[in-house]
DNA sequence: GACATTTGACCCGC
DNA sequence: GCGGGTCAAATGTC
């Protein structure tokens, strides 16, 4: 370390502290209600995680640099060969020498692509939804296409694999995995990988407008919800456009996906496995907190379209189940919604105007 | 017909 | 060899 924290580290730390603060607030609120032990446990764990991560950041001995993985993640979409760079060459045998050579090259490329794919930023969002939503899990603002389902060892429920609908047309590499929690059937664990580089898939022009089915699905969900979504997405639009996430700019997909966090726990899995914020990782493991306020006045988020419970869930008492499900998913858009959405007051968190970091440096 | 989902098979890393 | 992730043909839906 250079002896001083750079602003990215400060952001990381502050974010973790904010997260911890929020967890603590929520825990306090939960203590006054009849919350389940699991809920309390989750909050406590969240607090511990937050502070452990902050400490972990403080222990970094080197300045943060943009991780190679991020470069890969950010540029893959823009630089990959349009003709399905990730297409698998299945190792199929070809007869003539030329084709064999080609096949070998393709196989190599495929392997490289596989590695790259594995290095894509990955983060997990736990979303609590109504049981009626079934195994499909909540909808989010993107257009996903299911491409697989697998029974996972020791897991009660199968894991579903989705990729961006515009993968082929726009080479959007975003994927997600949805798995129902073993412990809590109303909880979905959604693991996102890669960022949307598609135009349609982003928050600015959500899936509502593209695939027919989703259009219909959304239409059936009622006007009220549509209004909520519209308001939410309007809040996202300006910022995502400014970010130009579709290009090869450095992305910070995980850290600032606050919309996700409004619906549940969100945590990033880093590219390494320790689960603690790592040096050199600019974006991974920001463990995007759910910053949803325990009270409306405790902080203000432009992205909070609906009342929240203390645990960052939309109050099912105030909303119909279907609304809940959709709103959860609406606020669950994982990508293209980085820091500009960070529209909360640091003052409320105890970070005064003198808190020594400069958010402006994050975005070019 | 276009698009989405299902599902068995395949590939890769561990 | 095993398990997770992905492919792609078959099938379903609109």
UniProtKB/TrEMBL annotation:
<dbReference type="InterPro" id="IPR036576">
    <property type="entry name" value="WRKY_dom_sf"/>
</dbReference>
<dbReference type="InterPro" id="IPR003657">
    <property type="entry name" value="WRKY_dom"/>
</dbReference>
<dbReference type="Pfam" id="PF03106">
    <property type="entry name" value="WRKY"/>
</dbReference>
<dbReference type="InterPro" id="IPR044810">
    <property type="entry name" value="WRKY_plant"/>
</dbReference>
<keyword id="KW-0539">Nucleus</keyword>
<keyword id="KW-0805">Transcription regulation</keyword>
<dbReference type="GO" id="GO:0042542">
    <property type="term" value="P:response to hydrogen peroxide"/>
</dbReference>
<dbReference type="GO" id="GO:0010193">
    <property type="term" value="P:response to ozone"/>
</dbReference>
<dbReference type="GO" id="GO:0009751">
    <property type="term" value="P:response to salicylic acid"/>
</dbReference>
<dbReference type="GO" id="GO:0000976">
    <property type="term" value="F:transcription cis-regulatory region binding"/>
</dbReference>
<dbReference type="GO" id="GO:0005634">
    <property type="term" value="C:nucleus"/>
</dbReference>
<comment type="similarity">
    <text>Belongs to the WRKY group III family.</text>
</comment>
<dbReference type="GO" id="GO:0003700">
    <property type="term" value="F:DNA-binding transcription factor activity"/>
</dbReference>
<keyword id="KW-0238">DNA-binding</keyword>
<keyword id="KW-0804">Transcription</keyword>
<feature type="region of interest" description="Disordered">
    <location>
        <begin position="313"/>
        <end position="339"/>
    </location>
</feature>
<protein>
    <recommendedName>
        <fullName>WRKY domain-containing protein</fullName>
    </recommendedName>
</protein>
<feature type="domain" description="WRKY">
    <location>
        <begin position="133"/>
        <end position="196"/>
    </location>
</feature>
<dbReference type="GO" id="GO:0010150">
    <property type="term" value="P:leaf senescence"/>
</dbReference>
<feature type="compositionally biased region" description="Polar residues">
    <location>
        <begin position="328"/>
        <end position="338"/>
    </location>
</feature>
């Amino acid at each position: 370390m250079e002896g001083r924290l750079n602003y990215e580290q400060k952001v990381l730390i502050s974010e973790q502290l904010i997260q911890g603060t929020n967890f603590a607030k929520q825990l306090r609120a939960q203590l006054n209600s009849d919350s389940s032990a699991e809920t309390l446990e989750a909050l406590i764990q969240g607090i511990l995680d937050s502070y452990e991560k902050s400490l972990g950041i403080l222990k970094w001995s080197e300045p943060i640099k943009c991780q190679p993985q991020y470069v890969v993640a950010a540029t893959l979409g823009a630089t990959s060969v349009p003709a399905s760079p990730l297409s698998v060459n299945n190792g199929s045998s070809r007869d003539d020498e030329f084709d064999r050579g080609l096949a070998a090259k393709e196989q190599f490329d495929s392997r490289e692509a596989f590695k790259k794919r594995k290095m894509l930023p990955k983060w997990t969002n736990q979303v609590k939804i109504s049981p009626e939503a079934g195994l499909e899990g909540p909808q989010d603002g993107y257009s996903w296409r299911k491409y697989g389902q697998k029974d996972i060892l020791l897991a009660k429920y199968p894991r579903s694999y989705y990729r961006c609908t515009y993968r082929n047309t726009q080479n959007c590499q975003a994927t997600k995995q949805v798995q129902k929690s073993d412990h809590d059937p109303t909880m979905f664990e959604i693991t996102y990988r890669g960022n949307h580089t598609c135009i349609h898939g982003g928050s600015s022009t959500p899936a509502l407008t593209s695939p027919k089915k989703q259009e219909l699905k959304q239409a059936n969900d009622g006007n009220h919800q549509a209004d909520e979504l519209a308001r939410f997405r309007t809040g996202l639009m300006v910022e995502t456009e400014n970010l130009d996430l579709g290009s090869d700019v450095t992305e910070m997909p995980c850290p600032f996906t606050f919309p996700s966090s409004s619906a549940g726990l969100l945590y990033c899995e880093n590219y390494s496995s320790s689960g603690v914020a790592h040096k050199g990782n600019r974006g991974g493991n920001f463990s995007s907190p759910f910053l949803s306020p325990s009270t409306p006045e405790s902080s203000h988020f432009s992205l909070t379209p609906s009342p929240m419970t203390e645990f960052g869930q939309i109050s099912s008492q105030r909303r119909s189940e279907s609304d809940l499900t959709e709103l959860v998913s609406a606020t669950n858009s994982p990508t293209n919604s980085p820091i500009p959405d960070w529209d909360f007051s640091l003052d409320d968190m105890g970070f005064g105007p003198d808190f020594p970091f400069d958010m402006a440096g994050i975005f070019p």
